[in-house]
């Protein structure tokens, strides 16, 4: 079993760093251009070790303030600043016509697109995705797709989640909790960050010029978290959580986007069937 982050991460049952990464590509299954911010230290380490990665974006990212092409170029520039070449990026959302904010309506299409992009003969070292945390409907949708893809490839124990942002635990919206794993998502694995790694998010943020309105609200929380945290944290994807609300409190996308969690679940029935079958196999093993 493999943590996927490379050397320097703890070697234990959930994080046997580096070894399997040398034998395959590490996938990052994301929702939008700029979601790579949540994985900056991991991407930086893998790039420095010359290990192959593939970043997959499942929604086009187009907004009233910026076209999909602009968003793509911003992510390419941000990732180039930490050593990731544009050839490692796949903008499946744009290819599939999946609009920003609507990925939950196209879960099967997203899964099928990944299966075509990454055929069964391609070795996969590990899979990382956004946490099941209720921050954005596309983030939770990407999480579902990543879990289903891992289940179909027999990689249920090699798929990991990283927290990005969600509603604050104690403060009302629009306050955020950033890079704060939910206890309900299971044990947290972590690795100490270098000073350079702690500054990566701030380095990358300057490339997302079209997102200045979003970063007025979210940016201070990202910067504060990068200044105060000394470790990167990740958790195994929990298949038993996929039909449960991420938190009992109102989810950020319920408040900001007007999308109820129940609506997302209605569109996820087929993927959840795949994931439940995987959960049964894991219980029998």
The largest sheet is: 7 strands, mixed
Q: Helix/strand/pairing class, anyone?
A: alpha/beta
Annotation field: number of helices: 11
- Euclidean distance between termini CA atoms: 15 Å
Percentage of β-strand residues:
15-25%
- Write the H/E string, N to C: EEEHEHEHHEHEEEEHHHEHHH
Radius of gyration: 17 Å
Kindly report the spatial arrangement of strands forming the biggest sheet: 5-4-3-6-7-11-10
What number is the mean pLDDT?
89
Helix proportion of residues, in percent?
25-40%
The 3D shape can be described as globular
Catalogue the unreliable spans. 6-21
Q: Strand tally, please?
A: 11
Concise synopsis of the structure shown:
With 285 residues, this protein is of the alpha/beta class. Helices cover 38% and strands 16% of the residues.
Structure description:
The chain is of the alpha/beta class and 285 residues long. Strands 5-4-3-6-7-11-10 form a seven-stranded mixed β-sheet, sandwiched between helices. A two-stranded antiparallel sheet has the order 1-2. Strands 8-9 form a two-stranded antiparallel sheet. A hairpin with a 2-residue loop joins strand 1 and strand 2. The two termini are 15 Å apart.
Task: Describe the structure using short key phrases.
seven-stranded mixed beta sheet, 11 helices, alpha/beta, 285 residues, 38% helix, two-stranded antiparallel ribbon
Give the topology, please.
Elements: E1 11-12, E2 15-16, E3 25-30, H1 40-48, E4 53-57, H2 68-80, E5 89-91, H3 92-96, H4 107-117, E6 124-130, H5 137-152, E7 159-162, E8 165-167, E9 176-178, E10 189-192, H6 195-198, H7 200-205, H8 212-228, E11 231-236, H9 252-256, H10 261-266, H11 269-284
Parallel strand pairs: 3-4, 3-6, 4-5, 6-7
Antiparallel strand pairs: 1-2, 7-11, 8-9, 10-11
Helix pairs in contact: 4-5, 5-11
């Amino acid at each position: 079993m493999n943590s996927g982050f490379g050397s320097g991460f703890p070697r234990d049952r959930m994080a046997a760093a580096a070894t399997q990464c040398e034998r395959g590509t590490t996938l990052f299954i994301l929702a939008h251009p700029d979601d790579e911010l949540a994985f900056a230290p991991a991407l930086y380490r893998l790039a420095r070790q010359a290990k192959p990665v593939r970043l997959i974006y499942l929604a086009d990212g187009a907004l009233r303030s910026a076209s999909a092409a602009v968003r793509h170029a911003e992510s390419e520039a941000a990732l180039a600043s930490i050593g990731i070449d544009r050839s490692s990026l796949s903008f499946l959302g744009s290819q599939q016509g999946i609009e920003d904010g609507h990925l939950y309506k196209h879960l099967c299409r997203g899964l099928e697109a990944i299966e075509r992009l990454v055929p069964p003969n391609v070795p996969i070292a590990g899979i990382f995705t956004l946490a099941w945390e209720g921050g954005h409907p596309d983030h939770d949708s990407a999480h579902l797709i990543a879990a289903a893809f891992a289940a179909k490839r027999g990689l249920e124990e090699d798929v990991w989640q990283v927290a990005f942002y969600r509603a604050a635990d104690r403060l009302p919206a629009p306050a955020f909790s950033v890079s704060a794993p939910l206890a309900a998502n299971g044990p947290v694995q972590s690795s100490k960050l270098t000073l350079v790694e702690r500054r990566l998010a701030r380095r990358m943020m300057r490339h997302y010029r079209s997102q200045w309105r979003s970063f007025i609200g979210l940016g201070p929380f990202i910067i504060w978290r990068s200044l105060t945290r000394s470790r990167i944290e990740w958790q195994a994807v929990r298949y038993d959580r996929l039909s449960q609300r991420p938190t009992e409190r109102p989810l950020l996308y319920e408040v900001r986007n007007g999308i109820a969690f129940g609506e997302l679940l209605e569109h996820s029935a087929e993927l959840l069937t795949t994931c439940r079958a995987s959960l049964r196999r894991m219980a029998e093993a």
